[in-house]
Design a protein that fits this description.
Blueprint lengths: L3 H29 L3 H4 L1 H26 L4 H27 L35
Helix pairs in contact: 1-3, 3-4
């Protein structure tokens, strides 16, 4: 029969391998994708999962060795999963405001990338006549 420690070593090894694969796929996405908007998915999606898996493996290992719950790794994981989407959103909004070019194969067209007219037509105002 398989022992508890052997089983936990397998679980920890699984999380380490999964974390390494996610991090590798994220790095590959950063090099292979065509424009900034597509490249933004690499660090925010797969690399976050990769680091999260490695942190879960670390928390499991130190909880097993020390005999108690490892709080530090769980706090780092929670902080990572909260801050990564926020930073990705800020980077995307900054890229839209800078009007970075996007690949034509990207679906959708944000209105922030439309060229503004040089002299937009002033809005017509209704004339208000003062009461007699």
């Amino acid at each position: 029969m398989i022992g508890f420690y052997t089983f936990m070593e397998g679980v920890i090894a699984f999380f380490l391998v999964a974390g390494g694969m996610f991090a590798f796929i994220g790095a590959l996405g950063m090099t292979r994708l065509k424009d900034f908007y597509m490249r933004l998915h690499g660090p925010t999606k797969t690399s976050t999962l990769g680091v999260g898996c490695v942190l879960i493996a670390s928390a499991s290992y130190f909880s097993l060795v020390d005999g108690g719950f490892s709080v530090q790794e769980m706090l780092i994981t929670i902080f990572l999963f909260i801050t990564a989407p926020v930073s990705a959103h800020l980077l995307a909004k900054s890229a839209l405001h800078q009007k970075l070019p996007h690949d034509p194969r990207t679906k959708g067209h944000p209105e922030e990338l439309d060229e503004e007219e040089e002299n937009p037509e002033p809005h017509e105002r209704a004339e208000i006549t003062p009461p007699p």
